[in-house]
Specification:
Blueprint lengths: L12 E3 L6 E12 L4 E11 L5 E5 L2 E4 L14 H13 L4 H18 L7 H10 L4 H18 L10 H29 L4 H17 L1
Antiparallel strand pairs: 1-2, 2-3, 3-4, 4-5
Helix pairs in contact: 1-2, 2-4, 2-5, 3-4, 4-5
């Protein structure tokens, strides 16, 4: 999965939150007008060189669109997870805690897609580990679980004072989808273009190995 460069105030290029393309950004300042004069305001805008749309900022924070500058859902994010993920994006700027709680629910809905029960995230992660889950994916899952739990039941991690922690949940969830869903799907699609004879030979070989064991 390629890197995602979130919109940052006064940066010259980043992934546009409107079109999703990594593009150059021009910056301008909004002015006010009365019947007698024109005056500067604290509002600015970024202008995307790809989609030619504007995002509006105030005091260094994007206010329109309301969705926080966080990664969009992975292209292979299961449909059952999209509602909570996108709702978390929409409220992230206003409530990092609420966004973290929604992403915890996103993770819980992802578990049945990964072959688990989806009732207890901790138990599901343990089950995946027993099935050979790579350590880095286990760490990403537990990160989302623990941070998400703090969104529901505030604990040692204060999300309101550290919104960047909630921001990272979006990246972690996309990483999990990439590793557990996208990569296997890509490998399978490439494997299936092999000649039928080669596929049959592999199946015969694996069948013989199974009999020996």
């Amino acid at each position: 999965m390629s890197n995602h460069y979130a919109p940052v105030f006064q940066e010259k290029q980043f992934h546009c939150i409107l079109c999703g393309v990594y593009a150059k950004q021009a910056w301008g300042k909004l002015v006010g007008r009365t019947s007698t004069n024109i005056f500067d305001t604290e509002f600015t805008y970024s202008y995307c060189s790809h989609c030619f749309e504007r995002c509006y900022w105030y005091d260094g924070r994007m206010i329109i669109p309301s969705a926080a500058p966080v990664p969009p859902p992975h292209i292979d994010m299961p449909e059952v997870c999209l509602g909570e993920y996108n709702e978390a994006r929409d409220i992230m700027a206003r409530s990092p805690r609420a966004a973290a709680a929604l992403l915890r629910l996103t993770l819980q809905k992802l578990m049945p897609v990964l072959g688990e029960k989806g009732k207890n995230i901790n138990d599901d992660i343990g089950s995946l580990v027993k099935k050979g889950l790579p350590v880095e994916v286990q760490q990403a899952l537990d990160y989302c679980r623990v941070i998400g739990n703090n969104g529901v039941h505030p604990g040692e991690i204060e999300l309101t004072d550290n919104p960047e922690i909630s921001h990272s949940l979006f990246e972690m969830l996309n990483f999990i989808v990439e590793d557990r869903i996208s990569r296997p799907k890509k490998v399978e699609s490439l494997y299936r273009i092999l000649p039928e004879g080669a596929l049959a030979a592999v199946e015969e070989r694996d069948g013989e190995q199974g009999e020996k064991t």
